[in-house]
């Protein structure tokens, strides 16, 4: 049996969707079963639990062989991940896939990468067979975070300068993780997963311009200005600071990486940014006002 965490988020729901499509039964750890309408399926067992409560994790892991750990980005992230890893070890889980981030390192100046790096080291020392998945930056940031400004103001704002990134589609990460959870032959490893090409924000602006038929501008903003914009949009200041730290490393070239990992695991080609934009084009187009009759 497989246990998922984070099954309602950007990546987790795509893992769940892929497992369901392939016909696998699995369990999903959820804090509130009443708020999981996207997981309603005869193949999904919803288990009430909380990463803050080790006893609930041990109960959830009864009979589990493969588990997926997708932690929330919070100040106590390492403690939450440690709780899950300890419960998995005590419950006899045979294989654990941890969601991490490109550049994870316990000594990183980015607190997000530091938190992931600390948990990676703990997992490596746990004795559980593991895979650590480090995705590059998600293409879905453009639909989840920037689409409104692209529609209304024909621009997107990031503090990346002319840095390039191997942007990856979250749907591909979902497929890869689902594949790993349903196979038994993976040895302990760390996998950096990217899209097929490394693109600058100017490259992306051109792709968007071609798709929507209007000029889309990339505005290179200062890190402090970008942080203030995130806070004004409702993000807690501590998380805005953490994202700004990470994006400083991105601007220094952290994400200018392209690997063949996705193809090696899935035997499929990763989606290009052009394909991502085509699949989500309606989100970047301004709705035409309805004509009055």
Helix content: 40-55%
Low-confidence stretches: none
The CATH superfamily of the domain at 2-136 and 168-193 bears the name NAD(P)-binding Rossmann-like Domain
How many strands appear in the DSSP assignment?
Answer: 11
CATH architectural group of the domain at 2-136 and 168-193: 3-Layer(aba) Sandwich
- The proportion of residues in beta strands is 15-25%
Please state the overall shape, judged from the principal axes of the Cα atoms: globular
Strand order of the biggest β-sheet = 3-2-1-4-5-6-9
Q: What is the SS-derived class?
A: alpha/beta
How would you explain this protein's 3D organization?
There is one protein chain. With 293 residues, the protein is an alpha/beta fold. It has a domain at 2-136 and 168-193: NAD(P)-binding Rossmann-like Domain (Rossmann fold), CATH 3.40.50. The chain has 13 helices and 11 strands. It has a 7-stranded parallel β-sheet with strand order 3-2-1-4-5-6-9, sandwiched between helices. Helix 3 links the parallel strand 4 and strand 5 (95-99). Helix 9 packs antiparallel against helix 10 (237-251). The N and C termini lie far apart (57 Å).
Features:
293 residues, 42% helix, single chain, seven-stranded parallel β-sheet, two-stranded parallel sheet, alpha/beta, Rossmann fold
Describe what is shown at a glance:
By secondary structure, the protein is an alpha/beta fold.
């Amino acid at each position: 049996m497989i246990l998922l965490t984070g099954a309602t988020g950007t990546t987790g729901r795509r893992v769940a969707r892929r497992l369901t499509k392939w016909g696998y039964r699995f369990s999903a750890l959820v804090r509130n079963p009443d708020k999981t309408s996207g997981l309603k399926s005869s193949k999904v067992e919803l288990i009430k639990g909380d990463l803050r409560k080790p006893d609930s994790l041990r109960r959830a892991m009864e009979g589990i062989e493969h588990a997926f750990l997708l932690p929330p980005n919070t100040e106590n992230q390492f403690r939450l991940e440690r709780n899950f890893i300890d419960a998995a070890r005590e419950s006899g889980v045979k294989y654990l896939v941890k969601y991490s981030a490109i550049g994870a390192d316990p000594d990183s100046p980015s607190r997000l990468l530091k938190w992931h790096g600390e948990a990676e080291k703990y997992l490596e020392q746990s004795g559980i067979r593991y895979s650590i998945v480090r995705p590059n930056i998600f293409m879905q940031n453009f639909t989840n975070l920037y689409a409104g400004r692209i529609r209304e103001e024909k621009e997107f704002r990031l503090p990346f300068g002319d840095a390039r990134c191997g942007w990856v589609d979250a749907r591909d990460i979902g497929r890869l993780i689902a594949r790993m959870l349903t196979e038994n032959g993976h040895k302990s490893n760390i996998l950096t997963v990217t899209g097929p090409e490394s693109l600058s924000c100017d490259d992306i602006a051109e792709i968007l311009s071609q798709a929507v038929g209007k000029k889309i501008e990339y505005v290179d903003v200062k890190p402090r200005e970008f942080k203030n914009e995130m806070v004004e949009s409702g993000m807690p200041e501590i998380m805005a600071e953490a994202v700004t730290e990470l994006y400083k490393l991105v601007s220094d070239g952290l994400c200018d990486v392209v690997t063949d990992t996705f193809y090696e695991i899935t035997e499929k080609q990763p989606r290009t940014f052009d394909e991502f934009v085509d699949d989500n084009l309606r989100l970047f187009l301004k709705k035409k006002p309805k004509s009055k009759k």
